[in-house]
Amino acid sequence: RIAGSSVRSGLRFFGLTVAQSALDQSGDGLPDIAVGSKGAVLLLRSRPIVSMVTRVTFTPPKIPTSISGCTDFQQITASVCFSMTKATNDIFKDLQAELSYTLKLDYVRQRTRAYFTANEKEKNFQSSVSLQEHCAQHPFFVQCSLEDALSPVDVQVIVYFEGVPIQTADGLVPQLASGSSKVTDHKLNFEIDCGEDKVCEDDVRVDINFSG
Ligand SMILES: [Ca+2]
C-alpha cells in the first residue's frame, strides 16, 4: 500500500485509477505503474534491484602454528570483498551503493583471541561499490600462546546498504534484493601441526601396564 502523501503532498483521491498492466513508460527496462488522482496522473517507477555477495579471505590463510610459542602477536590480513550484481533486467550500467560495514573478530567468545588494536575487537568501515568486485584489506592481530588454538576464530561481517541515486534516472535509487545476506560468517582456522613431514596421522597410543 502506497499513501498518496508519500508520493507528493496535496494529492487528492490518489489511486482513483490504476493502470491495469505494468508497462515501462520510462524506458529503463523496469515496469512502471500509472496511478491517477484528482487532476493528476503519476508514474510510479520500480527500482533496479541488486544482489550482493560478501567474500572474506585471510593472509596467511591459516593461523600459523608458531603462534603457540611466539612472544609477540601474529598479524593476519582480512581481505573483505563485495560483489554487487544486477538482479533486474534494466538498462543501467553504472549502479552504485555506499556500504558501511562492521567487522567483528572472534565474536562468539567473551574472551576474544583477536583484535584490531588493544581491546578493539570490532571496527566500522565504509566502501563505495559499483558493478564489479571491491576489496579492502583489514589487518588485525591474533594473540600469542593461546589456551585454545583449535577452534577457529569466527569473523562476522555486517553490512548496511545504501543505494546511490541514479542521476540520469531522476534520482531512482537501487535497492538490495531481500535475499541478499547482510550478515555473513567467516572462519579463520589454525594450522594443524603434523610434525616435520606435514602429514597428519592419528598418533594416539595408550599404554596400560597392569602390575601386581
Ligand atoms: Ca520504467
UniProtKB/TrEMBL annotation:
GO biological process, one term: cell-cell adhesion
Gene Ontology, cellular component aspect: external side of plasma membrane; integrin complex
Database matches in InterPro entries: Int_alpha_beta-p (IPR013519), Integrin_alpha_Ig-like_1 (IPR013649)
Ranges for the FG-GAP repeats: 1-61
UniProt GO molecular function: integrin binding
Record Pfam families: Integrin_A_Ig_1
Residues annotated as domain Integrin alpha first immunoglubulin-like: 46-191
This protein's name: Integrin alpha-X-like
Species whose genome carries this gene: Clupea harengus
Designated gene of the protein: LOC122132604
